């Protein structure tokens, strides 16, 4: 605990001990952190990382708290949030923007009760912008993704509309190489500035990021994302705005009290094996496993989208994980398929999550990668086998 106190003294009064992490996630579940710190600037963010490493304190970085399930036992070491939010349009006249003055957009529509999970499709909205002229935009890792999408569209800049309705930060989007339909964030990335393990800053080109289906090198290397430069488009803004709202409308099936999809969608091989019309994991959970209404404690499968597990009030991480394991085991036993978790499981022991750690899970992730192709011509090289 001495090193934790020393880090608190270095970071100042904004650093808090024993912070409940449930208040920093969409799911509202999770134990406490040893020490918690929100960095308002990139310099503060870098300082926190460097000082924690000097003291050999483990670091966990949270974005907006989506896409994660935190153990009831909390997270050891430093839990760090990056609130830096600078955007710079790198054309002839550089323009700096402070997103703190911009209201975060909220996309909410009523979902279609008749179609339910099966309605969760985007193919009809897809189109190619690759022939449009490009514009370079630099963004801090702490920039809020929904804010950035709306701001850039208002500036006539397209390319991020595919990620409307996805909560989180730019850093988190790169870390996970998030996807919207057939589109991956890496399509429009040019370079990423990182803090390496020695405390120095390096710039990595897109070809060096090790992008995969919901994966990048940053999940393995310990490098910390500081900012990124994007190659976006001077595209059809009206069309992009339509896609942005329609995309978010369809994603509004996501309940507010859930972290995101619990499992990745199926591979084409799994879909054909089951003889179903979609790769949607939610479709499988609803129509084949018939788990509508299933719950453990207050962790329940959502009736609006069956690939979401919601906290109905006082769910624990143990409740939530048991629901995931029940779905996984039922799919394996009754259907002969394995489902792969899409959310990150933080603070759990390897024994608690051993079902989701074997090599077969990695193989299934890779299959999904090669089945979901980006449409942008200049990014195909990122997804071709070497």
UniProtKB/TrEMBL annotation:
GO terms for cellular component: cytosol. GO terms for molecular function: FAD binding; UDP-N-acetylmuramate dehydrogenase activity. This is UDP-N-acetylenolpyruvoylglucosamine reductase. Residues 29-235 form the FAD-binding PCMH-type domain. Pfam families: FAD_binding_4, MurB_C. PROSITE patterns: FAD_PCMH. The keyword Cytoplasm applies. Gene3D superfamilies: 3.30.465.10, UDP-N-acetylenolpyruvoylglucosamine reductase, C-terminal domain, Uridine Diphospho-n-acetylenolpyruvylglucosamine Reductase, domain 2. It catalyses: UDP-N-acetyl-alpha-D-muramate + NADP(+) = UDP-N-acetyl-3-O-(1-carboxyvinyl)-alpha-D-glucosamine + NADPH + H(+). The lineage of its organism: Bacteria, Candidatus Woeseibacteriota. It is an enzyme of class 1 (oxidoreductase). Its cofactor is FAD. It comes from the Bacteria.
């Amino acid at each position: 605990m001495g090193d934790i106190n020393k880090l608190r003294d270095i970071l100042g009064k904004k650093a808090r001990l024993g912070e409940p992490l449930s208040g920093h996630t969409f799911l509202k579940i999770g134990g406490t952190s040893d020490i918690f710190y929100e960095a308002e600037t990139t310099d503060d963010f870098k300082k926190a990382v460097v000082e924690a490493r000097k003291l050999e304190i483990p670091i966990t970085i949270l974005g907006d708290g989506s896409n994660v399930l935190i153990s009831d036992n909390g997270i050891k070491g430093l839990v760090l949030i990056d609130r830096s939010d600078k955007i710079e349009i790198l054309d002839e006249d550089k323009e700096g923007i402070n997103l703190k003055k911009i209201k975060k957009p909220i996309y909410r529509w009523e979902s279609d009760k008749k179609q339910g999970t099966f309605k969760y499709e985007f193919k009809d909205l897809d189109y190619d912008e690759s022939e449009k002229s490009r514009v370079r935009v630099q963004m801090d890792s702490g920039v809020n993704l929904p804010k950035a999408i709306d701001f850039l569209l208002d500036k006539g800049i397209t390319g991020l509309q595919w990620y409307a309705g996805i909560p989180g930060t730019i850093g988190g989007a790169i870390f996970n190489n998030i996807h919207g339909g057939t589109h991956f964030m890496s399509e429009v990335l040019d370079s990423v500035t990182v803090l390496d393990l020695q405390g120095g800053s390096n710039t990595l080109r897109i070809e060096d990021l090790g992008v995969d289906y919901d994966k990048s090198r940053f999940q393995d290397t310990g490098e910390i994302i500081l900012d990124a430069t994007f190659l976006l488009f001077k595209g059809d803004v009206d069309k992009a705005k339509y896609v942005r709202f329609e995309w978010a409308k369809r994603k509004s099936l996501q309940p507010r009290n859930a972290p995101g999809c619990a499992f990745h969608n199926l591979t084409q091989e799994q879909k054909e094996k089951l003889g179903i019309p979609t790769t949607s994991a939610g479709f499988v959970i609803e129509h084949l496993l018939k788990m509508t209404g299933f719950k453990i404690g207050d962790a329940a499968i959502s009736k609006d989208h069956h690939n979401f597990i919601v906290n109905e009030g006082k769910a624990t991480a143990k409740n939530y994980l048991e629901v995931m394991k029940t779905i996984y085991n039922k799919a394996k036993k009754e259907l002969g398929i394995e489902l792969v978790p899409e959310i990150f499981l933080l603070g759990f022991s390897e024994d608690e999550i051993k079902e989701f750690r074997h090599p077969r899970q990695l193989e299934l992730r890779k299959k999904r990668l090669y089945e979901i192709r980006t449409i942008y011509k200049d990014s195909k090289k990122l997804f071709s086998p070497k």
